[in-house]
Design goal:
alpha+beta
């Protein structure tokens, strides 16, 4: 978020350890979630456009940048581009931007912000891993921004890609049929036949029902049955590397 503010306000990469002031207020957790509120302290004269962000309610831009970085590193590049466009639109409609909003300036700004944002995303491995550390262990997902922000969710599949250093792509959720060969309860995984060739692969299960035995997963594993599931595939170099299962629908008859 801090890097994003500097990029959008001054159109440059941050200097090492450079940070604008961001005040965070951590509320008492509600059941099932923890909410962290952020505010930007205005620095008039130091960051030319930061006051516009604050006065115009544009602190959402920092949230869009955080979502952009995590989507880039989490294997969802198409969704990341949406957040970049949102950042540019927020910048364009500020008063300072409108004063210079000819097409050439807008094209230059698009190129500059795009390049800088991508550069920060590529060097933010440690910060990204810290941000998603609880996902898949103690929480199901991270939502950036308020509850009305569509597409700002970071789920377990993306968190795993971020933790591994990126380089993989996460597909959309789809309903598929898998051949179950076994399961491990302690780490919430299924052993299934590979979907793209011979052999077996591991599928991670985020479905809470997995913890309550017996369930569809354990029953399918016991008889090595085919199971209908809702899942996301993770690809690396064009090959399916992992499956994240969020729901089991039914066991198919032999």
């Amino acid at each position: 978020m801090a890097d994003g503010i500097l990029i959008l306000s001054e159109q440059r990469l941050p200097i090492r350890r450079e940070r604008p002031p961001i005040a965070l207020e951590i509320q008492a957790p509600r059941a099932g979630s923890v909410e962290i509120l952020g505010g930007l302290a205005p620095m008039i004269g130091q960051l030319p456009l930061l006051w516009d962000f604050v006065a115009s309610g544009r602190a959402k831009s920092a949230m869009e940048f955080a979502a952009y970085v995590l989507k880039v590193r989490g294997g969802r590049p198409a969704e990341a581009e949406v957040h970049k466009e949102n950042m540019l639109e927020i910048l364009r409609i500020t008063e300072a931007a409108r004063d210079r909003a000819d097409q050439r300036w807008h094209d230059t700004m698009r190129e500059t912000v795009g390049h800088l944002a991508r550069s920060v995303a590529e060097r933010s491995g440690y910060a990204s891993k810290q941000a998603v550390a609880p996902i898949g262990r103690s929480v199901d997902q991270l939502q950036i921004g308020d509850a009305t922000g569509d597409g700002n969710l970071i789920d377990a599949a993306m968190a795993d890609v971020i933790r591994e250093g990126g380089g993989a792509t996460v597909g959309d959720q789809e309903r598929i049929v898998v051949q179950v060969d076994g399961y491990q309860h302690h780490n919430r995984t299924l052993k299934i036949a590979r979907l793209d060739g011979e052999g077996f692969m591991t599928a991670n299960v985020t479905d809470p029902a997995f913890d309550n035995s017996p369930n569809l997963y354990t029953e399918a594993a016991t008889v090595r049955a085919r199971l209908v599931i809702d899942a996301k595939k993770t690809f690396r170099d064009g090959r399916i590397e992992r499956l994240h299962i969020s729901n089991a629908v039914e066991i198919l008859a032999a």
